[in-house]
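Quiz preparation item.
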């Protein structure tokens, strides 16, 4: 697919551009409205096209924990019958806790961790089935309360009796930006992994104590523009970090429900690197 079309969709999903304006621009790039309508399903997430992750070795439940201004909804997944588990907070994209991110949460659990997929839209009634509506609601969240809700999620994990007290986070897109924010705002965080997420403010980098792993798609010009300044600040402040840029792949390359942007090779490599970091940093806490 023409990279200009993929870039247009990326712009649409990360801005306040209306669907009407997006479709008008898509029709121009595609050559007609009819072709635009044909192309659209290839751009949008298709949860039915990706097989749901399942494992007999994990258990999954819906839970709530106290947030900044009411209960936060979340999906918790963990290996059956295991204790002393390293914990991972999973942070969704800018559409809410959708089936893809629930699958990611289960996959983290299957790797041997206690995983918590938080629904950031809990204060607004929870994630809707309409992705455009979810994107609109993300923009209505109170930034400070939203940050506190995630910080409280980290504390919830630290206090779990089946956890070992060590906590990391992984976020995607909007959630990748939040992973960077959590690294800045939680000095007890052991590891933070950001997939194609906005970088933290460079003036805040000295606050980071966690080990960082940052995954970027080589074609993701919008997000990648912030890499040089961020990396320099990480170097200057001697932060433990790794940056991986995957050539020839797009923003959201890990999302297997997004057919035009998913890249299996890059996704598998980034995932193995992510799990290796968590195994290194979130192993059983010795007392």
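Solution:
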């Amino acid at each position: 697919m023409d990279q200009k079309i993929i870039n247009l969709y990326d712009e649409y999903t990360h801005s306040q551009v209306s669907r009407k304006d997006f479709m008008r621009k898509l029709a121009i790039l595609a050559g007609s409205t009819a072709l635009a309508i044909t192309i659209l399903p290839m751009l949008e997430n298709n949860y039915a096209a990706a097989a749901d992750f399942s494992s007999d070795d994990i258990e999954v439940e819906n839970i709530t924990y106290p947030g900044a201004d009411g209960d936060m909804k979340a999906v918790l997944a963990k290996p059956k019958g295991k204790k002393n588990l390293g914990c991972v907070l999973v942070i969704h994209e800018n559409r809410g806790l959708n089936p893809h991110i629930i699958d990611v949460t289960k996959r983290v659990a299957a790797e041997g961790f206690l995983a918590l997929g938080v629904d950031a839209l809990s204060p607004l009634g929870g994630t809707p089935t309409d992705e455009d509506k979810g994107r609109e609601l993300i923009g209505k969240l109170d930034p400070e309360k939203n940050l506190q809700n995630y910080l409280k999620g980290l504390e919830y994990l630290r206090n779990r009796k089946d956890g070992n007290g060590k906590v990391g986070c992984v976020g995607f897109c909007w959630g990748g930006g939040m992973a960077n924010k959590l690294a800045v705002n939680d000095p007890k965080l052991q590891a933070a992994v950001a997939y194609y997420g906005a970088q933290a403010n460079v003036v805040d980098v000295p606050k980071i104590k966690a080990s960082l792993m940052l995954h970027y798609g080589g074609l993701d010009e919008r997000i990648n523009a912030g890499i040089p300044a961020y990396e320099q600040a990480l170097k200057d402040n001697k932060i433990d970090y790794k940056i991986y840029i995957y050539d020839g792949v797009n923003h959201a390359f890990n999302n297997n429900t997004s057919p035009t942007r998913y890249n299996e090779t890059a996704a598998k490599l980034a995932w193995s690197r992510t799990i290796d970091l968590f195994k290194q940093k979130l192993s059983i806490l010795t007392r």
